[in-house]
Automatic annotation (TrEMBL):
Pfam families named in the record: HMGL-like
Name the record gives this protein: Unannotated protein
Record keywords: Lyase, Metal-binding
Domain annotation Pyruvate carboxyltransferase: ranges: 14-284
NCBIfam families according to UniProt: PRK05692.1
Any GO molecular function: hydroxymethylglutaryl-CoA lyase activity
Family to which this protein belongs: Belongs to the HMG-CoA lyase family.
Organism field: freshwater metagenome
Gene Ontology BP term (one): ketone body biosynthetic process
């Protein structure tokens, strides 16, 4: 089976959202120049990726790495069929983003399932976060944007330990009722295991009904990212987030790896007969370019090993 066959996806179509330009660049110690970001984002948007998270409208003094969000959106050439998403932390962020309403297609909002993580992350209780996100989601809907809500620490919290699936479902229902068309579940510090994931997605699908897309956001913190992807697939999940080059993803503890790599995810999905629309060599080329820009080797396996060549002859 080669890339051409697997692109057709005999085992079914899987959505992949590339989050490296936000989740990855935000976690780099050095600021990446806007010119370099445009180069990398452009390469990703031409690789067949259908969904891409470009930046976040957080306060520039909080995350200086993404302070050029408005300029990036302004200068980025749209690619037909590629949905551009931005992360919105609060209403002020939405106000700023809406000044460029025609430069993106989707918003993502976020909160944590556990109180302690939410307080440490955004200095609010979960209930206070939900109140704010309801207003953001309502206004984003009025602006005609697709709405994604991401729940961090869905599979466990580094401060509180276990997070009951009923609690995640309760928060997810609130977000659905507030207008989210898609709910993402983040394994923020890599605590999920495949058995847990296999129980999680059917429970959430039951709780949310058929009109909400469920998306998995796994981290490879303990090397279980792709095992969790397979468990989620078997449990009916058809949408995943990943980051080219394995960039970013909340490295806690310091030095830990974060997001699963897009090229590792796409390689596995294609080998299993799923279609993504993504050209694997093109993503690998983008990650290689990111290595050059950032000046250090990146962690993805497929970037090192390359795609499988089934037509190889000794
Ligand atoms: Zn992540």
């Amino acid at each position: 089976m080669g890339t051409t066959d697997s692109a057709a996806g005999s085992a079914g179509w899987i959505h992949v959202r590339e989050v490296g330009p936000r989740d990855g660049f935000q976690n780099e110690p050095e600021r990446i120049s806007t010119d370099d970001k445009l180069l990398l984002v452009g390469a990703l948007m031409r690789s067949g990726v259908r969904r891409i998270e470009l930046t976040s409208f957080v306060r520039p003094d909080v995350i200086p790495q993404l302070a050029d969000g408005a300029e990036l959106l302004d200068r980025l050439e749209p690619v037909p069929g590629v949905s551009r998403s931005v992360l919105i932390p609060n209403e002020r962020g939405l106000d700023r983003a809406l000044e460029q309403r025609d430069r993106f297609d989707e918003v993502s909002v976020f909160l944590s399932a556990s109180e302690t993580h939410n307080r440490k992350n955004v200095n609010r209780s979960v209930e206070e976060s939900l109140d704010g996100l309801r207003r953001v989601l309502a206004r984003a809907g009025e602006a005609g944007l697709r709405r994604v809500a991401v729940i961090a620490t869905s599979f466990g919290c580094p401060y509180e330990g276990a997070v009951p699936v009923e609690r995640v479902a309760e928060i997810a229902r609130e977000l659905r009722d507030a207008g989210a068309e898609e709910i993402g579940f983040g394994d923020t510090t890599g605590m999920a295991n495949p058995r847990q994931v296999g129980r999680f997605f059917p429970a959430l699908a039951d709780a949310l009904g058929p009109d909400v897309e469920l998306t998995a956001h796994f981290h490879n913190t303990r090397g279980q990212g792709l095992a969790n992807v397979l468990a989620a697939l078997d449990a009916g999940c058809r949408s995943f987030e990943s980051s080219f080059g394995e960039l970013g993803g909340c490295p806690v503890p310091a030095g830990a790896t974060g997001n699963i790599a897009t090229e590792d995810l796409v390689s596995m999905l294609h080998e299993m007969g799923h279609g993504t629309g993504i050209d694997l060599p093109a993503v690998i080329a983008a990650s290689r370019e990111a290595q050059r820009v950032i000046g250090r080797p990146l962690g993805s396996h497929t970037l090192v090993a390359g795609p499988i060549d089934w037509n190889a002859r000794a």
